[in-house]
Predict the 3D structure of the following.
Amino acid sequence: MFSKLYDKIKEFFLNNYRFLIFLISIVIIFNIQLPYTIEAPGGYINVTRRIDMDNAYESKGSFNMAYVSEVSATIPTLFYAWLNPNWDISKNEDILLENETIDDLLFRNKLALKEANNNAIMVAYTKAGYNYTIINQELYVAYIDKDADTTLEVGDLIVSVDNQKIKSKSDISEIIKSKKSGDKLTFRVLNNDREYERIAYIKDIDGETIIGIIIYEMLDLDMEPSVKIKTESSESGPSGGLMTSLAIYNSLVEEDITNGEIIIGTGTIDAKGNVGSIGGVKYKLLGAIKGKAKIFIVPNGENYLEAMALKTKNNYDIEIVGVSTFDEALEFLENYNKKS
């Protein structure tokens, strides 16, 4: 019985080997990952719907976060991107910081998203006249410069430096400022639930004492009314911070600052309400156009100039608003509502 089955399988392969080779080749071509990232026009995410707040005021319109679509680089997608003027190809090494891996980048961007959401909460609650309390702070090493002289690793949770308990980034900054070039710092850190001792040596760069790392500060906040920001596991990065802060603020105040409009935008936000630049402006603007938004809010400076150039070139019917702070974005929306 088994010999007959074997003979049939062998006969099938002998008669169809060319087709099987072709099929295997197609599977390989479509699935092999190349060391490139392809950026393409994205869409937008309704941030207003993601704000889960007790007794939130309702909104007739919505605040939306523009995003860039990233496509895995395979031979077919790379070829299509080469032909499509709205798709751009970047080497993976060009989107990474020096001395950074893809896994490090993903970790850093996850931290950046959490930090951006915390900043959005603090800015919105402060502006709306509500209080919040920081109940816990955690400091994570997110990047290590190639010239840093340290045993610290990306992902380390910093507990203490030179036996001083660390509660904020400013604590570390003050310790570093008190040292001179060549001094050694001893860190106690947690990584994967294990405690380690790490060291870092101070360097003097242009008169500034540094150890060559980037730290992200994760906060646990307590506020009334309570709020949760829903995110997808695939999402990362800080570029939705501004729109998230506006959506939270709009849930806290009686006046609906959307005026019933679909408002799409992008930009980072820090704890003081400053708006920072982002990447992929042209893709995000194309997403806003596809979403038929009347207003596209973008960071001032190069981001605004790039968006305006694209609008002029293609005669897009959309109002592009450049802002440097949360207050500027809010002022525009309040004045826009009065004109309407």
The chain has three domains: 1-28, 40-69+103-131+224-340, 137-222. The CA atoms of residues 53 and 227 lie 4 Å apart.
